[in-house]
Design goal:
By secondary structure, this protein is α/β, with parallel strands linked by helices. The protein has a domain at 1-102: Rossmann fold (3-Layer(aba) Sandwich). The chain has six helices and five strands; from the N terminus they run E-H-E-H-H-E-H-E-H-H-E. A five-stranded parallel sheet has the order 3-2-1-4-5, sandwiched between helices. Helix 1 links the parallel strand 1 (3-10) and strand 2 (32-39).
């Protein structure tokens, strides 16, 4: 089974959001899945962590700054590993082949470069974790630069009470 579906997501706790849809689609079209986890170039984006690092840097405590940054990256990588393992287990249970790649950079460039080397990918599915933030990925630019069908998976609307 060849991976014809590219599931692009942002690294973090919600990186598997939308994966159920991708898995069901892969079953129905008898395809494998490639997961592309994209991190922005500056992985440490939590405001509190940045402010704490800046405070320690101003005080000249660069060892603590490095420790804070290393801890942040370690937590992201642990979450990534856990989520990718869960996705792999779900795929294996459904007899769907799954591969994954992790990359840093802006989403448009990462996706475009990834697809250059993989002409067998037939469609690109964007997770809600990635597509909800217009700064993370501009859908219009993506459509202009990629000749594959693009599906923007959205979160279900919540019922109003």
């Amino acid at each position: 089974m060849k991976a014809k579906i590219l599931f692009v997501t942002k690294g973090g706790e919600d990186c598997d959001e939308g994966f159920s849809y991708v898995l069901e689609l892969a079953k129905s079209v008898n395809s494998g899945i490639t997961v592309l986890v994209v991190y922005p170039k500056n992985m440490m984006n939590a405001f509190e962590d940045v402010m704490a690092a800046a405070a320690f840097a101003e005080a000249g405590d660069f060892k603590t700054v490095k420790s804070l940054m290393d801890d942040q990256e370690r937590l992201l990588r642990e979450t990534e590993t856990k989520k990718l393992t869960e996705m792999a287990e779900r795929s294996r249970a459904a007899s769907i082949a799954l591969t994954h790649t992790v990359a840093e950079g802006d989403a448009l460039t990462v996706i475009r470069d990834f697809l250059k080397d993989r002409p067998g990918i037939d469609m690109v599915l964007l997770s809600p974790a990635l597509s909800e933030n217009r700064k993370a990925v501009d859908i219009r630019k993506l459509i202009k630069n990629i000749s594959k069908p693009i599906v923007n998976i959205s979160r279900p609307l919540k019922a109003e009470v």
